[in-house]
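User: Please fill in residues for this 280-position structure.
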């Protein structure tokens, strides 16, 4: 790994990142699973499209795995071996205000804020990290027995995904597993559950690897709505750049603002949902 540390030129770093990401995506499908997009999109579930309210810059080198809003700022976790970080971001400018880097052996995943703590998952290290929200110092860790993908919280629990169709409920104080649910749409399993956000009593989940967000009842696991975000990151705007999938949902409850972005996307969007009334 010593050699890698010396490779700091941007093109080489980017190439290395792409190679690592390609390996990660291939490996990721081994135990987790993709969303069955044909089954998901053919189900009789209410569909929403979107309207872009605001568009902001986003670090195009951020392989976004977790996104959270808190008190006027965004918190973001990024993945990749040797590239993983936790950062505080100014929404308007996309400027990274504070950043801490994880050790090279960790591939960081989702983040959730719980009181004065930030919880950050790792992909295949079976280990979550606990950070002090104010000064971004690591104050603890905990373990779990599955891959770590997305995480969010409701009023009393942490809610975690592992790339399958399951959501897991954790005690926010000792991180112990309290229960789980299976997510379905018209009775069919919905796999590839990735980044999460708890919004007004429902769990919003990015479905890997797609442009869809599922709206899930935390009580039954049923998908009650789906958001089609296809076209939001117009690749015509980003010539000669490789971007990865939609990933990252954050919600500002005080101003009812919904933010989305993706891995290596140069933009972050505030969107409004628009109910799709098209006849099928
Ligand atoms: Ca989130």
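Assistant: Residues filled in for all 280 positions:
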């Amino acid at each position: 790994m010593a050699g890698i540390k010396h490779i700091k030129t941007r093109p080489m770093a980017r190439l290395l990142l792409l190679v690592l990401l390609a390996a990660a995506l291939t490996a990721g499908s081994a135990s987790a699973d993709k969303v069955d997009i044909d089954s998901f999109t053919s189900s009789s579930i209410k569909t929403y499209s979107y309207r872009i309210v605001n568009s902001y810059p986003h670090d195009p080198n951020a392989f976004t795995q977790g996104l959270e809003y808190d008190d006027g700022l965004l918190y973001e976790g990024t993945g990749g071996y040797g590239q993983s970080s936790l950062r505080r971001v100014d929404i308007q400018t996309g400027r990274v205000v504070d950043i801490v880097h994880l050790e090279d052996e960790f591939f960081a995943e989702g983040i959730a804020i719980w009181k004065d703590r930030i919880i950050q998952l790792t992909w295949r290290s079976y280990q979550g990290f606990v950070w002090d929200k104010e000064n971004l110092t690591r104050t603890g860790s905990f373990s779990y027995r599955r891959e770590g993908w997305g995480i969010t919280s409701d009023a009393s629990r942490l809610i975690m995904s592992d790339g399958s169709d399951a959501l897991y409920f954790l005690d926010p104080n000792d991180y112990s597993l309290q229960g789980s649910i299976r997510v379905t749409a018209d009775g069919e399993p919905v796999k590839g559950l990735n980044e999460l956000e708890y919004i007004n009593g429902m769990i919003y989940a990015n479905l890997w690897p797609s442009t869809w967000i599922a709206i899930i009842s935390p009580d039954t696991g049923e998908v009650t709505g789906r958001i089609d975000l296809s076209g939001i990151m117009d690749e015509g705007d980003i010539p000669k750049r490789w971007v990865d999938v939609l990933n990252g949902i954050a919600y500002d409850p005080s101003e009812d603002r919904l933010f989305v972005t993706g891995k290596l996307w140069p933009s972050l969007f505030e969107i409004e949902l628009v109910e799709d009334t098209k006849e099928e």
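For context: The pocket of calcium ion is lined by residues 67-68, 152, 195-197, 249-250 (CB under 6 Å).
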